[in-house]
Design a protein that fits this description.
By secondary structure, the chain is an alpha/beta fold. It contains 14 helices and 25 strands. The chain has helices at residues 3-12, 27-39, 42-53, 79-94, 130-149, 166-175, 221-227, 230-236, 257-265, 304-307, 330-340, 394-397, 412-429, 465-468, and strands at 63-64, 71-73, 98-103, 156-161, 186-190, 193-195, 197-198, 205-207, 210-211, 213-215, 241-246, 270-276, 286-290, 293-297, 320-329, 347-351, 355-356, 362-363, 370-374, 387-392, 433-434, 451-453, 471-473, 477-479, 494-495. Helix 5 links the parallel strand 3 and strand 4. Helix 4 crosses helix 5, helix 4 (79-94) packs across helix 9 and helix 7 packs across helix 11. The longest helix has 20 residues, at 130-149. The protein starts with a helix and ends with a strand.
């Protein structure tokens, strides 16, 4: 170890503080710290930092709403066309050409847990975690494709973790027997990390001998695809279409055949699923045109007057709310990885980052004290010359888990209720009814309800008519498939006269 040479390099870039505890370290800790510091490209990291800290300018004059020809909506599309999209999507699934890719590298800091979000149980009657719900939806959509096409195609599940979530995720899947899926059809890979920085550009020490590091954002996907040879794996398996989503949406439809069919019908190489933004103050990015290119613009980048603009029908002019749910062709991802990834910029996320102070003590700040540098998965939209946007109903498909209970939105309670209310509506739409203890009919809009339907029984409300039509139910109601891993006794069914 040439410590003096390293000290000189650190001093050149204003990072000499990283060796302040060198004399106190054991030989093993010295080796670890030296290896970590020697491997860092300080010029590149400081360049990322400078870009991140550049004040964000309003982009109002550069924005345009999406052109109508790239857009579609589940609410306004005729049932016959929706069925065509679904049939096409199921065909591709049956042919083994569709995979799902889960972005699960983030830490559940705001949620207040120390384990990966996918392991979280929001309090459903079944006690199922987000990972189990998603696994069962994969199994169900595979089954649907087999019924539709007669082919037993496999939906591969690629899961991008980080150093903070990798080990726990692997152990969780293993201990739960991969939730009934074949372990050979699940590929785990790890995204890269970047050092956390103080507001003035100093790398943060987490301990005397270890840097504070954080995942490089969900846009770190593209570098991770290259580093882990994931696209080669997809290519060898004959995969052509990739559905990318974030771990925290309890309503996510895995390998959604309607979305996939819509994007294929549009000839798209890149697509985004969105929900209508109705409140101009909702803190969600909007999919639109920026300088004539497809983009997601954060709410903080738009002035209030632009956010409040409305169309002649009264809807917001910029109303395509992004929900981190995307479609890519394999060829498009190959283009990004080989030619475009280095053009993606880092964005700043100000965080409360534990650090080692000058006395060697761990300090947990109560206010943001540093920044994590992240790329965004949607920043590749700008490179698409064949884009598609599919609007879905928020109450059917989007309820993210971001915050601990006590926050106003996006909590375990709101996620739980979103799923239970959705399943309650499925029963009603399939012709079932609910009664009170005295036998009187329950109001259709009663809330909250305790009604859960296994994803192995129904993917999106289909197939329930035969089971529930013309029958009365009492709450709570839990409907499980016969092969469900957590099988429960089905609530008594009472036939209507």
């Amino acid at each position: 170890m040439d410590i003096e040479k390293l000290r000189e390099k650190l001093g050149k870039h204003g990072q000499e503080h990283l060796l302040q505890f060198w004399s106190e370290l054991s030989e093993a800790d010295r080796q670890h710290l030296y290896t970590e510091l020697e491997a860092m490209d300080y010029e590149k990291i400081l360049r990322y930092f400078d870009v991140c800290m550049t004040p964000v300018e309003k982009v109002d004059d550069r924005l345009e709403p999406l052109p109508g020809n790239v857009c579609g909506s589940v609410a306004t599309t005729e049932a016959e066309i929706l069925q065509k999209y679904e049939t096409e999507g199921l065909k591709q699934i049956g042919d083994g050409k569709v995979c799902v890719l889960l972005l699960a590298g983030g830490q559940g800091t705001r949620l207040g847990v120390t384990y990966p979000k996918g392991m979280y149980n929001v309090g459903l009657p079944s006690k199922k975690t987000l990972y189990q719900l998603q696994a069962e939806r994969i199994m169900k959509v595979q089954s649907m494709a087999q019924v539709s096409t007669g082919k037993s195609g496999t939906v591969m599940w690629y899961i991008m973790t980080s150093e903070h979530t990798q080990d726990a995720t692997l152990e969780f899947f293993k201990s739960h027997n991969y939730f009934g899926l074949d372990a050979a059809n699940i590929v785990f890979f790890e995204q890269n990390t970047l050092p956390a920085m103080t507001m003035d550009g100093k790398v943060i020490l987490e301990t005397k001998s270890r840097l504070s590091r954080a995942p490089d954002g969900n846009g770190g996907l593209y570098k991770a695809l290259e580093d882990n040879h994931i696209l080669e794996d997809m290519n060898q398996r004959g995969i052509e279409f990739i559905h990318v989503y974030c771990v925290d949406n309890i309503l996510v439809r895995m390998a959604d055949p309607v979305f996939i069919g819509f994007c294929i019908a549009k000839g798209a190489n890149c697509g985004a699923k969105v929900v209508e933004k109705t409140d101009p103050n909702e803190p969600v990015g909007v999919v639109c045109l920026l300088d004539g290119k497809y983009s997601v613009v954060e709410y903080s980048e738009i002035s209030a007057s632009t956010a409040e603009k409305r169309q002649t029908d009264g809807k917001l002019a910029f109303n395509a709310g992004g929900i981190a749910n995307h479609f890519f062709t394999l060829d498009f991802l190959k283009l990004i990885v080989s030619e475009k990834e280095d053009q993606l910029i880092h964005h700043v996320a100000k965080k409360k980052i534990p650090f080692c102070n000058s006395k060697g003590e761990l300090v947990k700040p109560t206010q943001p004290n540093g920044v994590k540098m992240e790329k965004f998965v949607f920043d590749v939209f700008q490179f698409s010359d064949a884009f598609a946007v599919w609007e879905v109903k928020r109450e059917d498909e989007f309820s993210p888990l971001k915050n601990a209970d006590g926050a106003a939105v996006d909590t375990p309670t709101t996620s739980q209720l979103a799923l239970l209310n959705l399943h309650y509506r499925w029963i009603l739409e399939a012709g079932g009814k609910f009664i009170n203890e005295d036998g009187s009919l329950l109001a259709r809009d009663v809330k909250p309800v305790e009604c859960e339907i296994s994803s192995l029984l129904s993917y999106a409300g289909e197939g329930l008519d035969e089971l529930v039509k013309g029958k009365l139910f009492k709450l709570p109601l839990i409907l499980e498939a016969s092969d469900d891993a957590n099988c429960r006794h089905m609530t008594e069914l009472l036939t209507l006269d």
